[in-house]
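User: Could you go from structure to sequence for me? I need the amino acid at each position, not a summary. Structure tokens:
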């Protein structure tokens, strides 16, 4: 059995993710390419963490013709990702003590518990044994999707560890959201033709 250290694997996946997702600056928008945005107030209000220590958000244009509810989108983002990326996420989260549920179940998305679920938005929640609580909130609008992360540090270990993971987190979410939007547009186009 070959052993790959998490650090090397994270670097490898980050390079793969960065090359696939592209980098956007300023206020550029492009269909199917996620870009970092300020966390919208309506998305912020959906988080169960009242005073997060970290928050970020990404948005992607999905096109008017691609209509899905929030749960379909979040499952597309995580559960339809390439198998190596899903494995990387599960292994990485587990290494840091994430209390994950089943990979696929009606109450979980890649192990994260569904905290609240509505047609327009969904909140996923997870707690890490190192004292980190996190929410992922996806808001599905008519032609775009916003995916936001909220993190709360409850212990010193979480305050030390989380900053070292931010770059991998941001690159991975940008890639996953971009890939999901492109995949949905492709499936919509191929099913319409």
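Assistant: Here is the amino acid at each position, in order:
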């Amino acid at each position: 059995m070959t052993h790959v250290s998490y650090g090397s694997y994270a670097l490898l996946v980050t390079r793969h993710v960065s090359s696939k997702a592209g980098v956007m600056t300023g206020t550029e928008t492009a269909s199917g390419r996620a870009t970092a945005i300020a966390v919208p107030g309506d998305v912020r209000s959906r988080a169960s963490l009242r005073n997060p220590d970290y928050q970020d958000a990404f948005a992607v244009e999905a096109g008017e013709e691609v209509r899905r509810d929030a749960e379909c989108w979040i499952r597309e983002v995580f559960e339809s990702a390439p198998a190596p990326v899903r494995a990387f996420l599960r292994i990485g989260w587990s290494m840091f003590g994430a209390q994950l549920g089943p990979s696929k179940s009606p109450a979980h998305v890649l192990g994260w518990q569904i905290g609240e679920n509505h047609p327009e938005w969904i909140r996923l929640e997870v707690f890490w044994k190192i004292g980190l609580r996190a929410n992922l909130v996806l808001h599905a609008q008519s032609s775009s999707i916003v995916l936001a992360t909220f993190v709360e540090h409850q212990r010193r270990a979480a305050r030390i560890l989380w900053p070292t993971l931010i770059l991998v987190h941001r690159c991975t979410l940008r890639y996953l959201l971009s890939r999901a939007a492109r995949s949905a547009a492709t499936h919509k186009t191929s099913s319409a033709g």
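One structural detail worth keeping in mind: The first strand starts at residue 35 and ends at 37.
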